[in-house]
Amino acid sequence: MNALLIAAWVAVVPAATPITLDQARTEGRKNTQALLSLLDLERAEQQVNLSRAPLLPQVDFNTSAGGTLLGRQRIVNTFCDPSGENCVQEPREVAPTSRGGFDLTLSISQIIYDRARWKLLEQSGATAEATRGQALEQADASELEAINRFFTLYRSQATIQVLEATVRRSEEQLERARALFEAGRVGRGEELSALVNLGNDRISLLQRRSQLAQDQAQLAIWLARPGAEALEAQPPATLTQEPAPAPALEVALNEARQRRPLIQALQQQVRAASLGKDVARAGYLPRLLAQGAYSRSDPSADVFYTEPRLQHTLRGAVVLQWDIFTGLSSRAEVSRAAASVRTAELNLAQSERELEAEVRRTLVALEVQISAAKLSADNREAAAQSLALAEERFKAGAGSTLEVRDAQLKLTQAELALLESRVTVEVARFAVTRAMGLLSPGESK
């Protein structure tokens, strides 16, 4: 029966693709959410170029060739006699006329002084740096989620292994119960009880395999892989090692303040808001720019195209622009910018407090899970010894299937608790690392 269940399971489950924790971390930093953040960064960097553009020379060139046709028109002319004393106005019709229009213009302008433009450029740079920090923060968040989903998949795989071992123990117990029943040492009830226990264990195993498919899909989707791809999490080496102690709180807080991308991004947002205030204040100051233009025009195509020495005009000027009164709009802009600065400062202060709480919370969780893992390991050893004792008593006819079953369940629970605690230790350690801004230190500098 067990062989048939395994064959049915293999028939519907495709071959799994192995994936390591390092692969999941790397691909997690390149998932859809992280890529969208990088596109935001690209837009912010291009905004820097757009803010720089007005500060560079602006050169325009245009040329045109055309003409104007005036149809027959009635106009009023003044006519005087030869003495010039008697003049009259008479309307007359004028024959149609036409003239050409040929023009060429080259103009250049350069800002000499415009404080608002320079501060806008600085502000765009600060905004780009803030967006860079947000992109790193999102990459860290995406990586941490990939780590969580990887360990969720590994937990399901390892749970299935524990349940498979439980099924094998139940099968062995059923064989012993049958043998003792056939030998007349126990009643039929012991065999039936062992048979029911085996059926329940097989049901639990099948249900967990259904959860495995869901965990595989969740990890594949997050890593931007095909949703139908079956993944198999490879056991991380750290799970077989003694858990390292948690870092000290003060050390963790100092690292978080210096390296957490979120804090760096919010600091740049405060700087960008402060520069916005400088931009608003620049409205009170004059602007100075230089302008130059060269043009050439003539109504005749012959002169325009065949006489390059004629019809030239060159103009130049230094222009001072000063908005003396703008209806108090500059004052309003300054006030609004000051409010934006205060908002950015409040957000930074709140995030720093939340970061401190996050670091402490994750550290406490890690310390608790490390202690729980040690207790779980001790419990697993005790449960294994208890099962061995119960099986020996059952073989000797001094125990019952109920006692063996109780010991089996306790061992299964202890093994699952040990698995859960060890996985939770690793997840908690990565949560601390992320809170400190050290998840990917090469990128968070």
Automatic annotation (TrEMBL):
This is TolC family protein. Belongs to the outer membrane factor (OMF) (TC 1.B.17) family. It holds the Pfam family OEP. Signal peptide: none annotated. Its main location: membrane. It is found in: Cell outer membrane. Residues 334-361 form a coiled coil. SUPFAM superfamilies: Outer membrane efflux proteins (OEP). Keywords: Cell outer membrane, Coiled coil, Membrane, Transmembrane, Transmembrane beta strand, Transport. PANTHER family: OUTER MEMBRANE PROTEIN TOLC (PTHR30026), SLR1270 PROTEIN (PTHR30026:SF21).
